[in-house]
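Quick one: structure for this chain?
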Amino acid sequence: MLDLVVAMAPYVDEKSLHSLYGIIQPSLQNKDHGIQKKAYRVLEEICASDRPACQNFVQSHLKDLQSTLLGSLPSASSPAKRPRLKCLLHVVKQFTAEHEDFVTALVPEVILCTKEVSVGARKNAYNLLVEIGHAFLRFGPAADDAMQRYLLVVYAGLTGSVTMMSCTVLALARLLFEFKEHISPAALEQLVQHICLMIGSRTRDVVKSALGFLKVALLLLDVELLGRHLQTMLEAIGGMSDDMRRHFRMKLRNLLSKLIRKFGFDPVRALLPDSYHKVLLNVRKAEARNRKRQALKRAAGSVEEDRPVRSKGESMEEVLADSDSEDESKQHDGKETKKALRQRAQAWLKEGEGDEPLNFLDPHVARRVLATKPGTGKAGKVSHDFKVSADGRLIICEEEEEEEIKGVDEEMADLMQEVGIRSVSDEKCGLG
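Got it. Here's what it folds into:
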């Protein structure tokens, strides 16, 4: 029945919507998760509809919707988060400056939902964070001041639980992506300082999110703007504990590689402690190898492109020559086929073990007829993932080289997807 209500709700008149809202309102706190989810779906369809009756209903019931959505927050189940966040997304679009307190009260819930199990809930949470940012810009008075107020609200999550801290850092990465032109230099400096403090955390989940934020910042901001915060970032990286450095060694190498590309080897080396110098040298060697490998690939590609393609002959002599060569190849193939058939017709008989003669009366003697000559088979080669040089030595690539070859792009794509910037469908379609 509720499925029919979900489908029909956007098409009823305003008076019926008022009655329907009174019916589904208690179901928003129902202990049955299925009923609660469908009740939120009904409310979502009403708020998302562009029909005049639905829009007038939402405008006239904004205060009631605020109290209902805030009151149902403690009892909201995980399956109902996706339609609940979608409903809030449409409601926030209708808000003006007088509703700033309600929008501020929503932020903690939305930040925590960025790590919900449901992919749809996480996507809606990030979209709602962006929409709240646009609402603060509407509230004014100036864009920089409005964004600073919003960031101050989000910063409160950095003092919460471990999960809240990790979610807050990821949320800040998404807000930097969306609103970097509205963040003043002073606000950006404060933001980087907060993130660098998180790098010194003793919790791996928080450190992972903070390193991810720095990667997003390196991707978005230009060299001049990043140069002002280079010392702060490298001091935070240099102050990581040994346990964190070991656990995130590949992420650190990728991050240091990006920093070297932007600022050069010497500035980065001067701002890091001596314990990082060996890592930096390895990164530089790996970069040199990658550049050499790419140059060889480009050179090989240009040679392939320059190689002339044999065109099909147009004169009678060329056609006859081509047909003669085809006949010769067919004859050669026929000889090879006959040879293979002769080899297939041959068989070998395996003798008895030791000095025991072969008993042809044994009913299992047919098992001793072999298709291949015994004793001539070569031992199978052991399969391994290492390359072998001409003299038989194993070639073992260093960890950072392997990561540079196959892991960096995938890790960056996963990071962008994690902060809601790029979805799985976009990656499959080649978008973003």
